UniProtKB/TrEMBL annotation:
Alphabetical UniProt keywords: Signal
Superkingdom assignment: Bacteria
Taxonomy of the source species: Bacteria, Pseudomonadati, Bacteroidota, Flavobacteriia, Flavobacteriales
Protein name, as recorded: MetA-pathway of phenol degradation
Signal sequence coordinates: 1-21
Length: 261
């Protein structure tokens, strides 16, 4: 799969060069958030959002096949340049639990984000602040994204820089794999109260054949997202349906999400 790695490397160089020349659960989800924020007071700096999903998808993963509630508490600067918050998710059956910290910076179409993702579902006895790569439930994800202005295209590159993203080298030592996930999404139709977008994402590691997302480099997330505003009495609820397919794991799913507030 060396050709795929070179393709992703070219993509990353393109994204980095764009940043100099013009100064990582999604394009439709961000559109939902923007709609909610437009209705809020511009002087309000602290925000709280609650989302209900029938399941939880993230970069081709079925993180939870049970219904999930997801809460986001954040501070956003008045000019929108800086955002910091806490994100938590829990499934109805209690098998999935997650608690994350994040910060992001937005400027002229670019978004730089750092997430400390802590999915404790399979790590019930690990200390909350244990970051030992051999034991931790955490992984730190750094991403750079660019939203084009003249076309509804968004590209992003995310790298896991620390945590439970590991491989064993030839000397038998546990090392960080520094797994990468690259995605492109495009809004196909954008109407007043609904929109449709498509996306494709792939994963790889320069350190080993296997990576955080699978046992080899490949496309691992393909799908479409339908978004609409649902009118109920005097309320407007942003609703999205994501139909995705993971060619690597050979499974598909449809996630339906409702932003309650």
């Amino acid at each position: 799969m060396k050709s795929l790695k070179y393709l992703f490397l070219f993509f990353g160089i393109f994204l980095s060069q764009s940043a100099f020349s013009q100064d990582q659960d999604n394009i439709i989800e961000e559109r939902n958030e923007e709609k909610l924020e437009e209705k809020e007071d511009e002087e309000k700096l602290f925000h709280f959002n609650l989302q209900l999903k029938n399941m939880h998808l993230w970069r081709g993963y079925h993180v939870s096949n049970s219904p999930v509630t997801a809460a986001d508490v954040n501070y956003t600067s008045k000019n929108g340049f800086f955002k910091a918050g806490l994100w938590g998710g829990r499934s109805f059956n209690g098998e999935y639990t997650e608690y994350d910290y994040y910060v992001s910076f937005m400027h002229k179409g670019f978004t730089l984000a750092v997430w400390d993702i802590n999915n404790t579902s399979d790590y019930p006895d690990v200390g909350f602040f244990n970051y030992d790569r051999a034991e931790t439930s955490h992984f730190i994800d750094v991403s750079l994204a660019y939203q084009f202005k003249k076309i509804p295209l968004k590209v992003s590159w995310a790298t896991i820089v620390q945590g439970r993203d590991t491989y064993v080298d030839d000397n038998g030592e546990l090392k960080n794999a520094f797994s990468n996930y690259v995605e492109a999404s495009y809004v196909i139709l954008d109407k007043e109260d609904w929109s449709l977008a498509g996306f494709v994402g792939g994963a790889f590691s320069f350190m080993s054949d296997a990576n955080f997302y699978g046992d080899h480099s490949t496309i691992n997330n393909v799908g479409v997202i339908y978004n609409r505003d649902l009118e109920i009495l005097e309320y407007t609820l942003p609703v999205s349906a994501t139909a995705s397919w993971n060619p690597l794991q050979e499974y598909g799913a449809i996630q339906v999400a409702v932003n309650l507030f």
